[in-house]
Amino acid sequence: MSDERERQENGPDGRGTVARLVAAWLAETERHDPEAAGHARDGWDRGALSERAAQDLATWVTARVTDTGFTEDEGPYVAGAVRITPSDKDTVHAWLRARGHAV
Fold first, then answer.
1. SS3 track for 60-99
2. How far is CA 1 from CA 25, 33, 43, 98, in A?
3. pLDDT tens per residue across span 29-66
4. Contact call for residues 86 and 72 (beta carbons, < 8 A)
5. SS (H, E, C) 30-56
6. CA 17, CA 23: separation in Å to the nearest integer?
7. What span, in angstroms and rounded, lies between the C-alpha atoms of 17 and 93?
8. Can you give the pTM of this predicted structure?
9. Would the CA dihedral through 8, 12, 13, 14 be positive or negative?
10. For residue range 77-103, what is the model confidence (pLDDT) as tens digits?
11. Residue 100 has what DSSP assignment?
12. Distance CA 92, CA 86 (A)
């Protein structure tokens, strides 16, 4: 990972991590519920996710953790379009809480 990307993703507010995961979440949501994805994208673009979208994002990122820290012999591998660590999940949850969402 480049130094610049690392600074963006690991910045104090986690905005880079959140942006990376929101993009993946919106892409997946568009395949299953285009209307909900449209509303969520509008909120994201305005900088204010609705409570429903925030809860959906929090649930999605929790369910999609792909890097569990286990080896292949120790635990399950969760396939996914993006790598999501437990720390990424915590970052997204903290980011949502900082914006007043109950996560």
1. HHHHCCCCCCCCCCCCCCCCCCCCCCHHHHHHHHHHHHHC
2. 22, 33, 29, 27
3. 999 999 999 999 999 999 999 999 999 999 999 988 87
4. no
5. HHHCHHHHHHHHHHHHHCCCCHHHHHH
6. 10
7. 11
8. 0.78
9. positive
10. 556 678 888 899 999 999 999 999 999
11. T
12. 10
- Tokens (6 digits) for 55: 């809860």
Residue in the block written with tokens 């949850």? 93
Tokens of 24: 């993946």
One-letter amino acid identity for 80?
Answer: G
Helix 34-46 to helix 15-32 angle, to the nearest 10 degrees? 160
